[in-house]
Structure formats: C-alpha cells, structure tokens
From TrEMBL:
Name of the protein described by the UniProt record: YitT family protein
UniProtKB keywords: Cell membrane, Membrane, Transmembrane, Transmembrane helix
Classification via Gene3D superfamilies: 3.30.70.120
Residue ranges of the TM segments: 12-31, 51-74, 106-126, 171-189
Length: 277
C-alpha cells in the first residue's frame, strides 16, 4: 500500500482525499459557526462573515496571490509543490456545500479540528501543500531568517484575532483552541500512531540485562562499544527498541537487575527495516 502511494496516481488520490477532508472541515464545521482558525480559509471565513463573499472565491484569490509570491520569491520548486493544493482546495470548497450539521459550537470546532488535522497531516506525508499561509513564513525565513514555525504562528494568530471584531471573543478563543488541537492531531497523523521507545542502558551488569532482553523476542537489541566522556573508561551500551505497552516492564526489569543502571529513553516515531525479534 505504501508503494502505491509513492506513484503519481497514488499521490494524486491521497491529495484529493486530503483536500476533501480540509474543505469538509471548513464548510461543515468552522464556517457555519463563523470560527476562523487561521490560514487562507480562516481569512476567507472572516471575509464571508463581513461582506458575504463566497468562501471558496476568497481562498482562490488569496492562494493565487501566494502562488505569484512563491514564483518570484521562493523559486519554481516551491511553486510546483503548492500549485495543486492551492488550486484544488478552493475547488473542493466550491463543490462541498456549506451547511451546519453540528449545532453545538464547541463540538463542531473539536470535530472540525480533528478532520482538518487529518487532511493536513496526509498532505504533509506526501510532501505537498494546500498553499495559503504556508507561503509567508517561507518568505520570512528566506529574507529575515525567521523560523517558519514562528512565522506561521504569527500569521495564523493575526487571522485568529480578526475573529474578535467580526464574531466576538468566543470565536477567537475557539479559533486558538482549534489550532492547538489540530497541531496535536496533525503530529500524530504525520509521524504515525505505531510509536516505539528507544532505551539506552549503561550498566556494569550489561551481560545480565542483555540476556534478559534476548529472552523477550519482541525487543530489538544492539550492543555498542562506548567510552566515558570524563572517565575515559570503555564500556558497553545497550540500545533497545521496545513497543510502548512493554516499556514500563522493560524499565522495571532493568532496575531489578541493576538499580544503579543509567537509562535514557526517547520516543521513536518511525522504525524501518530489521526486526524487533
């Protein structure tokens, strides 16, 4: 399945699904409640609430402006990467009818944020973009050395602030909440849900710990020769890849063998190749 999605047809299908999810979250959850949670679509919601211009039309106009800026200021590569999404999103916004299907405003924002994040996360997985406010942060990075994350936060926050004069403080609070929730879900979609822990262990009883780990065939194990930075004493470090549910049992097992063992655990968002056996 993964190989199919690396083909042009597979990537195109995934992009279409992602844009449909984003447009659906906007037209069915955000826009009916007048909540502008950043981005080009957020700005379009503000314009629609203020002067009644259709949401898809404002999004298309803004994205076209961003495409022009990308062409002249960021290069042809960036222009090509964002072109399909920049045009495709307004089309999907025009095709999906705008209607309120959830009356409760908070619930609508929660559902919309999750759907929106899944769509954006899918786009990130194929290294594409829906255009919009992804362009200004890249321009700020190139010419002012400002980190893209900071630039994107600033742009989205300014759009969120526009909720106050148009739809009130509550809409602003909901918009900020939506951005935060979307970021969490987006990170999970982009990096995957099948996460593992990598545990590094330094112990004088590494042989006993190694034997205990090898008795569990679902743990990956690598032995590395290391030298202490201060003591210059050679030693052996264990690198163990473990599934999340087994993490606590592994730590407890190591502590039972050597209470003084040095343990460092980090999260591995993706593990490829090899085996946990």
């Amino acid at each position: 399945m993964r190989n199919k999605l690396t083909t042009p047809a597979g990537r195109g299908l995934l992009l279409l699904i992602a844009l449909s999810l984003i447009a659906g979250s906007i037209n069915l959850f955000y826009a009916p409640h007048g909540v502008a949670a950043g981005g080009a679509t957020g700005l379009a919601i503000i314009v629609q609430e203020s002067i009644g211009v259709p949401l898809w039309l404002t999004t298309l106009a803004f994205n076209c402006l961003m495409l022009i800026l990308a062409w002249f200021m960021l290069g042809r590569g960036t222009f090509r990467r964002i072109l399909a999404g920049s045009v495709g999103l307004p089309v999907m916004l025009a095709l999906i009818p705008q209607r309120m299907i959830v009356a409760d405003r908070l619930l609508a924002v929660i559902i919309g944020s999750v759907i929106f994040a899944v769509g954006v996360g899918l786009i990130y997985r194929i290294d594409a973009s829906s255009g919009g406010t992804t362009v200004p942060p890249l321009i700020l990075q190139k010419y002012l050395r400002l980190k893209p994350a900071i630039g994107l936060f600033a742009v989205d926050f300014l759009i969120c602030l526009l909720n106050i004069p148009v739809a009130g403080i509550e809409a602003f609070v909901l918009a900020v909440f939506a951005i935060g929730l979307s970021s969490l879900v987006m990170n999970a979609v982009e990096t995957g849900l099948d996460r593992k822990k990598v545990v590094y262990v330094m112990s004088e009883r590494h042989a006993a710990i190694t034997a205990a780990v090898q008795a569990r065939t679902d743990h990956g194990l690598t032995l590395q020769s290391v030298v202490g930075g201060f003591s210059k004493t050679p030693g052996t470090m264990l690198m163990i890849v473990v599934e999340q549910p087994d993490f606590r049992a592994l730590i407890d097992g190591i502590r039972a063998i050597d209470p003084d063992a040095f343990i460092l655990a980090v999260e591995a968002t993706e593990v490829h190749g090899g085996s946990l056996g």
